[in-house]
Amino acid sequence: MEKEKLDINIAKFQGDLLKWYGENKRDLPWRRERDPYRIWVSEIMLQQTKVDTVIPYFERFMSLFPTLDALADAEEETVLKAWEGLGYYSRARNLHQAVKEVKESYNSKVPHTEEIHKLKGVGPYTAGAILSIAYGIPAPAVDGNVMRVLSRIFLMKDDISKVSTRKKFEALVEEIISQEQPSDFNQALMELGALICTPRSPSCLLCPVQAHCEAREEGIQEQLPVKIKKTAVKEKNMKAVVLMDKAGKVLIEQRPDTGLLAKLWQFPNIEGASKDISDITNYMEAEAGLKVNIVPEVKQHVKHVFSHLIWKIDVYIGTVDEIVNENTLKGSSMQFVEKEDVDWYPFPVSHQKIMDGILKGDIENWIYN
């Protein structure tokens, strides 16, 4: 995109935006210093997650892993437990793997060259954010907020779900970014999208760059950006069971090494919508060599929404009456743990709801009375 084609006074736009940001920026914990590691962690956490949600997780994560080396040296399960509740666990795994690479290949210094793009999980936006915010390099950092703001300012009607459109926005930012204050400029665009140029009912009268906005001039700001809707989200019916043995231990299982929620722990579960629990009892004997007695009434209903999938889980409770095959249990992904130790394992949000609703309730009386 050539400068002469931009129908905007770039210097005036920069000045209006930066002045507003300097007066209105939020006091966020990752903005208090330019440590590239902290900025990196914050940007990964902020992907698909609201700022208010991220703040306590970020502060706890930093207390556990205050340096890049501390995170690199941590066990994966410890990292996943610290991430528990944020969702999109591949973000945590990729971050963990990438900081190990930085420690080994870059002497624990986050690279400030094109090498940063080679790190696992570091896409164009994250790289641009680190380069501009931590190192003061005028690199574009284009996320959903930025695309929404710029689509309105420049009346861009391209579908923002396409990679080609993102590249157009990156080229645009390269033309308009402040060379002297790239950190503040990129953060100002993000902040404007978060606070003023919101998806619905943007506060145009409060906008510091309203005079530059072509969409507002035409009265179509709420129609932008253009994003083609995805296909309908699928629903999956599940049955889960919280089982205790005679010693009061709880049975949990680990998910596979790859795929959705990889390596996280959960209560045993299967697909199914019927109220017949024989499929669960058969599953437990076949997969874990256990003879179980399950209370036939559903004890809890859990609904969890992913970006592409909805789980509807009927939760049952029961007891393990006998280990029919010890070798089957040992070879399975299931194990017994003390009830009070279940919290030490990283669980997805859906099964945390089960933990809170049943395991932390009066489960012994529910089962044995």
Question: If you had to describe this structure to a student in words, what would you say it looks like?
Answer:
With 369 residues, the chain is of the alpha+beta class. The protein folds into 2 domains: 3-223, Endonuclease III, domain 1; 234-368, Nucleoside Triphosphate Pyrophosphohydrolase (Alpha-Beta Complex), CATH 3.90.79. It contains 15 helices and 8 strands. The strands form 2 sheets. Strands 1, 4, 5, 6 and 7 form a 5-stranded mixed sheet that branches. A 3-stranded antiparallel sheet has the order 3-2-8, with no helix packed on it. Strand 6 (300-305) and strand 7 form a beta hairpin. Helix 1 (10-24) crosses helix 10 (182-195) and helix 8 packs across helix 10. The longest helix has 16 residues, at 90-105.
Largest sheet: 5 strands, mixed
How many DSSP E strands? Answer: 8
Structural classification: alpha+beta
Mean pLDDT: 93
Family: Belongs to the Nth/MutY family.
Cofactor: [4Fe-4S] cluster
Enzyme class: hydrolase
Organism: Evansella vedderi
Key terms for this structure?
369 residues; alpha+beta; Endonuclease III, domain 1; Nucleoside Triphosphate Pyrophosphohydrolase; 2 domains; five-stranded mixed sheet; three-stranded antiparallel sheet; 15 helices; 8 strands; iron; metal-binding; hydrolase activity, acting on glycosyl bonds; DNA repair; glycosidase
What's the topology here?
Blueprint: H1 10-24, H2 36-46, H3 51-64, H4 68-73, H5 76-83, H6 90-105, H7 124-135, H8 144-153, H9 163-176, H10 182-195, H11 214-218, E1 234-244, E2 250-254, E3 265-266, E4 269-271, H12 278-288, E5 290-294, E6 300-305, E7 309-323, H13 326-330, E8 334-337, H14 349-359, H15 363-368
Parallel strand pairs: 1-7
Antiparallel strand pairs: 1-4, 2-3, 2-8, 5-7, 6-7
Helix pairs in contact: 1-10, 2-3, 2-7, 7-10, 8-10
Domain HhH-GPD: 45-195
GO molecular function, one term: hydrolase activity, acting on glycosyl bonds
Keywords: 4Fe-4S, DNA damage, DNA repair, Glycosidase, Hydrolase, Iron, Iron-sulfur, Metal-binding
